[in-house]
């Protein structure tokens, strides 16, 4: 079972009655496979964040270029050749992009970076940037979404994905989550 530790830091620290800084950071442990599960926070008075699934995506890849040797492994580069996003918060078509995958530690660790672009069903353009680490079957990535229109609020949210690469390395399947502090 894979869990994610997230350290939530406030934008401003509060002060106690003596004027001393009292940071209110807290650590949250998340199981993305069970967003309804109980999450733990180190501060009992804090609200417990929860995960909200915002989309599933299929990213189609062209054949990877010949491997590029890097320290500890190899780098694979492929053009993103379309795909789709489906969900209540975000639905659209992926037009293109690039996928860079570093395979290190004898294939046990995969570091990925995917940049894809497209448009939502209402025509709003978007750019998705994913940077993650894991294995071929189980990879977690921070997601940065550049978008306007009615989905503009997602550009300012903490988003991440759980992704897997197909055995033939032609398709990345991704589930996108939003961390909601409510």
Verbal overview:
A hairpin with a 5-residue loop joins strand 8 and strand 9 (92-104). The chain is mainly beta and 182 residues long. Mean pLDDT is 80; it is low at 1-5, 7-18, 20-29 and 35-43. The chain contains no helices and 14 strands. The relative contact order is 0.18. The chain is globular.
Task: Give a quick summary of the entry.
With 182 residues, this protein is mostly beta strands. It has strands spanning 4-8, 14-15, 21-22, 26-30, 40-41, 50-61, 68-70, 73-86, 92-104, 109-120, 125-134, 139-147, 159-165, 171-180. It is globular.
Keywords:
single chain, 182 residues, mainly beta, 3-stranded antiparallel sheet, 14 strands
Element layout with pairings:
Elements: E1 4-8, E2 14-15, E3 21-22, E4 26-30, E5 40-41, E6 50-61, E7 68-70, E8 73-86, E9 92-104, E10 109-120, E11 125-134, E12 139-147, E13 159-165, E14 171-180
Antiparallel strand pairs: 1-4, 2-3, 4-5, 6-8, 6-14, 7-8, 8-9, 9-10, 10-11, 11-12, 12-13, 13-14
């Amino acid at each position: 079972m894979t869990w994610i530790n997230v350290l939530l830091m406030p934008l401003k620290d509060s002060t106690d009655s003596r004027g001393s800084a009292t940071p209110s950071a807290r650590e949250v442990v998340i199981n993305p496979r069970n967003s309804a599960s109980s999450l733990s926070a180190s501060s009992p008075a804090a609200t417990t964040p929860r995960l909200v699934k915002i989309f599933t995506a299929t990213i189609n890849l062209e054949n990877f270029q010949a491997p590029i040797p890097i320290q500890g492994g190899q780098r694979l580069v492929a053009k993103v050749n379309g795909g789709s996003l489906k969900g209540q918060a975000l639905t659209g078509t992926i037009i293109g992009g690039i996928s860079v995958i570093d395979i290190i530690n004898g294939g046990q660790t995969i570091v990925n970076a995917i940049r894809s672009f497209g448009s939502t069903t209402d025509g709003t353009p978007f750019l998705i940037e994913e940077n993650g680490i894991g294995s071929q079957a189980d990879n977690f990535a921070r997601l940065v979404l550049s978008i306007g229109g009615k989905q503009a609020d997602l550009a300012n949210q903490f988003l991440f994905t759980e992704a897997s690469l197909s055995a033939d390395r032609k398709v990345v399947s991704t589930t996108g989550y939003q961390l909601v502090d409510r």
